[in-house]
């Protein structure tokens, strides 16, 4: 069959996938953000997940295009939904983007079409929440007129090694025959192939435990960091020593932000409670990791007090605001928690990040940031906090940013030399 692909949602997940599909199939990207679509059609991706030269090749060589016009996607027959699945202010799953996307697809699908969901969800969302909307809007019957699959995204923002081409994708389908079709379509563009799950629910669950497992493991390391800091023991020294054993899993403490690890566990936590199961380990891990920004700020304040630095009105420099290094993604960054805690003591906080978009940061968090003129920062601050280990910060003499040697340098990422720092996580 001649598949015509439509990818709904052109963010960190959807765009790389659409670009890759365009090399083998007629592909169109759909997004509600006109500014985003215009930029992509001009061959630039502000997320930096797809290099401009690859995007330009997709447009010029493979006729890939993006649109906000629903009529442009009516001719497709294989729809992939890759919209965000965030949580609300109370950490409850927010399915509105996913349900809205299901309604959009329902308006255009025809008999025989296939819909594949990639958005991270708890087990059951695809069949219990999304499909009924598609049925109502389209007037078509599930598994008779149209078919559905689930293939969880595995995009790691900023990771240039584990790109969409090289990762192994889990696939699934609403019937055995459709599962085979979906698996073959995905296999045709992936270097390392696919794993066909036994059901859509299994595929959904496999995704959500990937990030929940990492959340729990990092929470353990963060708890160790608190214990060892209280005991005056360097946590990283302990980890290096322990990692000499062959079966020790080497992880480091840190801030857990972004759109995946810090969000996805809440989906499974809520669904577990519906079934009468209280997920104590996952819930405790979320609470611990969510509190690490405030903990870092408190550690910095202790160091300032020890050095006799007046906390009130102190000049503080935060290096980095994205949720991870060498990536412009600011979603759910925990650097903001450090900022908010220190803001209770001083208004003299400067945030410097050469990767972040100043407008996006201000729109999301109300914080003005600097992105250039490193030299002008030298000799200006009482405290410098390395929050994100961007490559631009490597091989820099961070202590030159302090007003004098009595200042404090705190290394959240444990990447600076011991000579440069006064404390680290």
UniProtKB/TrEMBL annotation:
It comes from the Bacteria. GO terms for biological process: polysaccharide biosynthetic process. InterPro entries: 6-PGluconate_DH-like_C_sf (IPR008927), NAD(P)-bd_dom_sf (IPR036291), UDP-Glc/GDP-Man (IPR017476), UDP-Glc/GDP-Man_DH_C (IPR014027), UDP-Glc/GDP-Man_DH_C_sf (IPR036220), UDP-Glc/GDP-Man_DH_dimer (IPR014026), UDP-Glc/GDP-Man_DH_N (IPR001732), UDP_ManNAc/GlcNAc_DH (IPR028359). Keywords: NAD, Oxidoreductase. It holds the Pfam family UDPG_MGDP_dh. GO terms for molecular function: NAD binding; oxidoreductase activity, acting on the CH-CH group of donors, NAD or NADP as acceptor; oxidoreductase activity, acting on the CH-OH group of donors, NAD or NADP as acceptor. SUPFAM superfamilies: 6-phosphogluconate dehydrogenase C-terminal domain-like, NAD(P)-binding Rossmann-fold domains, UDP-glucose/GDP-mannose dehydrogenase C-terminal domain. Residues 317-418 form the UDP-glucose/GDP-mannose dehydrogenase C-terminal domain. Belongs to the UDP-glucose/GDP-mannose dehydrogenase family. This is Nucleotide sugar dehydrogenase.
């Amino acid at each position: 069959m001649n598949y015509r692909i439509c990818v709904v949602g052109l963010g960190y997940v959807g765009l790389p996938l659409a670009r890759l599909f365009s090399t083998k199939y007629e592909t169109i990207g759909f997004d509600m953000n006109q500014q985003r679509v215009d930029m992509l059609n001009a061959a630039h991706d502000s997320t930096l997940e797809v290099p401009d030269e690859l995007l330009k090749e997709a447009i010029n060589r493979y006729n890939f295009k993006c649109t906000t016009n629903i009529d442009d996607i009516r001719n497709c027959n294989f729809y992939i939904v890759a919209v965000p699945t965030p949580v609300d202010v109370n950490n409850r799953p927010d399915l509105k983007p996913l349900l809205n996307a299901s309604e959009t697809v329902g308006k255009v699908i025809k008999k025989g079409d296939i819909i594949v969901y990639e958005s991270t969800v708890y087990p059951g969302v695809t069949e219990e929440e999304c499909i009924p909307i598609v049925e109502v809007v389209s007037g078509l019957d599930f598994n008779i007129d149209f078919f559905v699959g689930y293939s969880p995204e595995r995009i790691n923002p900023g990771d240039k090694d584990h790109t969409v081409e090289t990762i192994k994708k889990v696939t699934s389908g609403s019937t055995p025959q459709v599962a085979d079709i979906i698996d073959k379509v995905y296999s045709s563009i992936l270097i390392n192939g696919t794993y066909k799950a036994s059901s859509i629910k299994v595929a959904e669950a496999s995704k959500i435990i990937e990030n929940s497992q990492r959340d729990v493991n990092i929470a353990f390391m963060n708890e160790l960091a608190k214990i060892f800091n209280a005991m005056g023991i360097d946590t990283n020294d302990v980890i290096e020593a322990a990692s000499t054993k062959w079966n020790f899993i080497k992880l480091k403490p840190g801030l857990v932000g972004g759109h995946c690890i810090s969000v996805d566990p809440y989906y499974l936590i809520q669904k577990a409670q519906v079934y009468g199961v209280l997920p104590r380990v996952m819930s405790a891990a979320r609470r611990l990791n969510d509190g690490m920004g405030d903990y870092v700020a408190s550690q910095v304040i202790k160091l300032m007090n020890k050095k006799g630095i007046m906390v009130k009105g102190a000049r503080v420099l935060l290096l980095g605001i994205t949720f991870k290094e060498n990536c412009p993604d600011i979603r759910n960054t925990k650097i903001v928690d450090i900022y908010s805690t220190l803001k209770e003591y001083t208004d003299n906080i400067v945030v410097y990040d050469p990767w972040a978009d100043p407008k996006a940061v201000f729109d999301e968090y109300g914080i003005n940031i600097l992105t250039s003129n490193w030299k002008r920062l030298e000799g200006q601050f009482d405290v410098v906090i390395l929050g994100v280990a961007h490559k631009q910060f490597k091989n820099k003499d961070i202590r030159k940013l302090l007003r004098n040697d009595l200042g404090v340098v705190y290394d959240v990422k444990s990447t600076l030399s011991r000579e440069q720092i006064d404390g680290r996580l």
